[in-house]
Amino acid sequence: MRELAHAELADLETERRGLERRLQQLLLPKDPNDERNAVVEIRSGEGGEEAALFAADLFRMISRYAERRRWAVELLSSSAASAGGYKEVIALVKGERVYSFLRYEAGVHRVQRVPVTEAQGRIHTSTATVAVLPEADDVDVQIGEGDLEISIAASGGPGGQGVNTTNSAVQIRHLPTGIIVRCQDERSQIKNKARALKVLRARLLEMEQRKRDAALCAERRTMVGGGERAEKIRTYNFPQNRVTDHRVGLTLHRLGGVLDGDLEELTAALQAHRQAELLGQAPAQARQG
């Protein structure tokens, strides 16, 4: 009887700790950006043509992840590399709580594999950077007409017939900050301008948030880095069929599935890690208050 009572008390204590932790989680401040759509910018880093191919792999991975979550992906701008892949690709991902999930893809991604151009079968290491910015509404960022320098030119680069027949490429320079955005994927000048403004607003919103919050500034530097091989959040090792996320020390031996958009396990681990960090910061903030 006494042993039964002891077991019941232990179960109650476990339940109490669980409820207490859940309450702490509910009391954590919410990031208002979590409910937003996201602008995803992917750029090739070190590795030349292989880095551009890897940037295309990451874009496909995020696009497939979006399909799994029933989000929509709208290509805003792209710059194709000569041998395939992307020097840069920018897309808007729209759906329920997009930023709250995609924020964990931001950073330097590293790939280790034998490039198709490698005759001797040597493994090369290349990188690509991913930036994930919350989409800005018109009310979030006020842009005066006098703040913009807009240039129109013929679209260039790969794109098939008709891409160069009209002056549809739009480049917008935000004079106060010097930020430059170029969009040329649409044949319509009006559509390219709208897309360029969407990217510009997202970058300006992120800039304003950095000014208000020093932590976001540090997060952005970690997010993009310089694209160097030593800076990485995740490694994709083809010979070992391995994906390792260095932020949480999680290794998965199903590289093909991850590159096909199966990011659920990685995202769940990163969300738990972030939540644990916030819970750890909360007592310190309470003491300071």
Give a description of the structure:
The structure is a single chain. The chain has 289 residues and is of the alpha+beta class. The protein has 2 domains: 33-138 and 211-288, Alpha-Beta Plaits (2-Layer Sandwich); 145-201, 2-Layer Sandwich (Double Stranded RNA Binding Domain). 40% of the residues lie in helices and 25% in strands. It is built from 7 helices and 11 strands. The protein has helices spanning 2-27, 49-68, 98-102, 189-212, 214-224, 255-259, 264-288, and strands at residues 38-44, 72-80, 86-94, 107-113, 124-134, 148-153, 169-174, 179-183, 234-237, 242-245, 250-252. Strands 2-3-1-5-4-9-10-11 form an 8-stranded mixed beta sheet, with helices on both faces. A 3-stranded antiparallel beta sheet has the order 6-7-8, with helices on one face. Helix 4 (189-212) packs across helix 5. The longest helix is centred in the first third of the chain and has 26 residues, at 2-27. It is globular and about 80 Å long. The termini are far apart. Residues 158-164 and 282-289 have low confidence and may be disordered.
